[in-house]
Amino acid sequence: VAKLGFSWEALDVKFWDGQGGSKGLETALFNLTQNIEISQELTGQPHDLEAIIVQEYCKHDLEIRLYVVDGIVQATIYTKFCKIKDNLEFGDFHELFEQEKAASAWCGGDLGALQDGERQCRAIVEHWMVWVQAQLCEVPPAIRFDFFMG
Q: Which has the higher per-residue pLDDT, 31 or 105?
């Protein structure tokens, strides 16, 4: 994928496939300079960034979003973009708020696997929070960590 650094809900993320050679990446980068569609309305890219992030797309079952407030995980939301649209943007966004529903929808009903994955994510967040606090010299009021699982 190619994305702008401060993308919100994947609006500034473009999928590309390396099988098309450099043309796929070239098209994705070009499309990031163009307008995007939000709720069937064209919108210009509002960013002024010095860099575009290009990274490997990781296939996954779902995304676990951990919301940390005052250094403690306060909320978890399970999300997934279920398709890549014709314009190479991610679409068909869904979010669930209960582990059981997320496991049923995206983990083949394997609640244990989802619980173990989330446990690992929470452990990583504890380590990341030490690093974040070292960078800021304090615990941030709020921060979100996103993890792909599966």
A: 105
**Rounded CA separation 6/21 (Å):** 26
Nearest of 115, 125, 118, 105 to residue 148 by alpha carbon = 118
pLDDT tens string 34-63: 766 667 777 666 566 777 888 888 899 999
Q: Distance (Å, rounded) from C-alpha 54 to C-alpha 57?
A: 9
Q: How far apart are CA 73 and CA 20, in angstroms?
A: 41
In whole angstroms, what is the distance from residue 135 CA to residue 131 CA? 6
Q: Are 102 and 111 in contact (CB under 8 A)?
A: no
Spatial contact of 96 and 102, defined as CB atoms under 8 Å apart:
yes
Residue percentage of the chain with pLDDT more than 70: 89
Q: Around Cβ 117, how many Cβ atoms within 10 Å?
A: 20
Phi, psi (5° rounding) for residue 84?
A: -105, 120
Structure tokens at 38: 């939000």
pLDDT-derived band at 31 (thresholds 50, 70, 90) equals confident
Other beta carbons less than 10 A from residue 56's beta carbon: 6
Report whether pLDDT(20) > 70. Answer: no
Q: How far apart are CA 121 and CA 136, in angstroms?
A: 22
